[in-house]
Backbone:
């Protein structure tokens, strides 16, 4: 049988030409062996979409699906009806599979999949940051309109639910979009539905947010309603329109400016003071001393958005400082990581916090005798303090 040298027409066994050619052949054999080995680690994964509408996952004109394809160009993703085929290197294919599973979970639990949620998942950030539970219904606070599950979406929102069950007063502080008010309203509606309280009282100070609204037409209700609109929005998400109208008419649910609380005793009620950063010391003290023996209260605020006059100190800062050691009163700091609005809101909050921290470092260097409320403010842009 002719050897490889004879096949190639190489006469001398030890000739340079023969040795060089053999080296090339050996290199090609090794390269082909590596390619064959790589193919062995290719993975084909088929996902079947049960219990969801594939169109919600794929998006209009496959817009959402294309986001995933563009994020993983090394992996082939084919969709046909309710099946998705993922082909690629084993670890990458498994990673893509886990992304799809996370997206499917969001659809099942929220009946929708916003495009920004897909972008967040692809970027290794879960916008809902679900707390794992063997019984998923255990995370549901209340069922809203159409059976919509209102649940704590982040760890600190879950912590807010827990603290409200073991404390009569809870301060929930954090930036915009962290679900402070929405979660608090859900807890109030749940307490009312479970007959733990007889009424819900929602209040906030009527302070203009950096702009003059001028003369507002209408009666007193028309004048103050713009300040209270966020509270109505949350209620409308959780109660049928006719039921909410009935509760408002018979004052089972009351939405009113903070000034209307003076002189009252609020008992057998779940009370929410929203935008508490815009209260003065006297207003916050007045509100807290309205609570009756069977009242529950959640106070929400964002110390980075104080709309009081420049020389007016926020009562919320002193309130946290003064009341921090009282049994039955808890404080929770939510952070940008709890934001459940558009994915850019988180980045915006962090950018502003970073600029503020730099300015504070330049203009107000830390001193050994700094007041305690300075630490409270810095916690809002740092890690959560549960």
Residues:
């Amino acid at each position: 049988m002719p050897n490889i040298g004879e096949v190639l027409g190489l006469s001398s066994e030890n000739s340079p030409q023969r040795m060089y050619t053999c080296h090339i052949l050996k290199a090609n054999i090794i390269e082909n062996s590596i390619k064959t080995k790589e193919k062995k680690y290719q993975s084909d994964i088929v996902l079947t979409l049960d219990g969801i509408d594939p169109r919600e996952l794929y998006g209009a004109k496959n817009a959402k699906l294309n986001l995933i394809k563009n994020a993983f160009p090394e992996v082939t993703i084919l969709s046909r009806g309710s099946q998705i085929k993922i082909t690629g290197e084993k670890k990458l294919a498994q990673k893509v599979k886990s992304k799809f599973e996370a997206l499917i979970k969001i659809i099942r639990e929220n009946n929708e999949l916003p495009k920004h949620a897909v972008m967040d998942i692809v970027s290794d950030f879960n916008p809902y940051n679900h707390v794992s539970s063997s019984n998923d219904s255990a995370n549901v606070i209340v069922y809203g309109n159409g059976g919509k599950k209102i649940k704590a979406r982040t760890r600190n929102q879950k912590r807010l639910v827990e603290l409200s069950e073991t404390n009569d007063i809870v301060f929930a502080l954090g930036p915009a979009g962290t679900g402070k008010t929405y979660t608090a309203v859900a807890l109030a509606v749940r307490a009312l539905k479970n007959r733990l309280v007889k009424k819900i009282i929602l209040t906030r100070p009527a302070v203009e947010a950096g702009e003059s609204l001028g003369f507002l037409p209408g009666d007193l209700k028309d004048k103050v309603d713009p300040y209270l609109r966020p509270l109505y929005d949350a209620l409308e998400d959780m109660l049928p329109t006719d039921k909410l109208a009935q509760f408002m008419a018979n004052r089972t649910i009351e939405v009113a400016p903070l000034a209307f609380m003076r002189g009252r005793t609020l008992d057998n009620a779940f009370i929410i003071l929203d935008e508490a950063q815009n209260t003065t010391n006297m207003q916050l003290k007045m509100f807290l001393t309205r609570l009756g023996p069977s009242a529950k209260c959640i106070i929400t605020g964002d110390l980075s958005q104080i709309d009081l006059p420049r020389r007016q100190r926020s009562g919320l800062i002193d309130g946290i400082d003064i009341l921090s050691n009282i049994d039955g009163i808890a404080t929770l700091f939510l952070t940008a990581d709890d934001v459940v609005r558009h994915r850019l809101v988180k980045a915006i909050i962090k950018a502003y916090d970073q600029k503020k921290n730099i300015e504070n470092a330049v203009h107000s260097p830390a001193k050994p005798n700094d007041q305690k409320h300075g630490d409270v403010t810095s916690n809002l842009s740092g890690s959560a303090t549960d």
In short: The CA atoms of residues 278 and 308 lie 6 Å apart. Residues 4-39 form one domain. Residues 20-38, 130-135, 209-213, 367-386 have pLDDT under 50 and may be disordered.
